[in-house]
Design goal:
Chain lengths: ~160, ~160
């Protein structure tokens, strides 16, 4: 049995009231995570159908780790659970937006509030090495204390 | 010649000042688009290396259409260009966040301000058909007038 409704016509997908998420060839759908209160984009992660079903049922964010090939709950190790206040789907139902309440000050495994702590140089010609600028990159928690050593991957929960 | 710097160690990728974006097996990287002024998440689209290079050079958003297999500039048809005020990259450099100024009130090809105009029911068990609720779903422009008939795909520029 499929977990979610089958895809319909373009009209049904875009203007309908049935949730019919599109998973890619690897069975995954991208989920943007934004802080419900500030609106700040915190991270982008991936869900398979089981992660999406668990997220909807529990209102806590579950994802699928592509590197580990496993379901993971954000906050399982760190306690930094993401409580889902709202889940949105886009026009063609192949991307999700989660508005979350954070149980801790930071979401990024590096200890920052958001994973998007560096800006790319703009107005640069292609083919040059582009420089990143750190923005709001102070650590709001100590990843070594939270996750222990050695340093874990980006998909550390 | 590669357009962007090669990937380094995890430490270099996460804590370094060199932009070394990771493209997936199809040569694509996801780009979240948010309004620079309101912070609202508008859409998720994909870039290949050429789209990313053009976006950086011109400060206007270029994407890669997976359905059409072609580079496209947002606003090419509609005039709804997205001017990039800031581009962020995440910890592992496999996702982008564009903070943009919109040349028109709406970004979604359906005429809405954002592509994320429907919310998914939460606290529902898996296996049921889930209902979507329309949120801020009024049209801010007429897609037929902007794009003409017949209705175009979700990746209409």
């Amino acid at each position: 049995m499929k977990t979610f409704a089958p895809r319909g016509t373009t009209e049904q997908i875009e203007e309908g009231r049935v949730f019919a998420p599109k998973f890619d060839a690897d069975g995954l759908i991208p989920a943007i995570v934004a802080d419900a209160w500030s609106g700040e984009v915190l991270m982008l992660a991936w869900m398979n159908d089981a992660a999406l079903a668990k997220s909807i049922e529990t209102c806590e964010a579950w994802f699928y780790s592509r590197s580990r090939g496993a379901l993971w709950k954000k906050g399982e190790t760190s306690g930094h659970v993401l409580r889902i206040l709202e889940m949105r789907v886009d026009c063609d139902q192949d991307a999700l937006l989660l508005r979350v309440e954070q149980a801790a000050p930071g979401t990024c495994h590096t200890g920052r509030a958001s994973c998007f702590y560096r800006a790319v140089s703009l107005r640069e010609p292609a083919g040059h090495t582009l420089v990143l600028q750190f923005k709001k990159a102070e650590r709001v928690f100590d990843p070594a204390a939270v996750y222990g050593e050695p340093k874990k991957t980006e998909e550390q929960a």
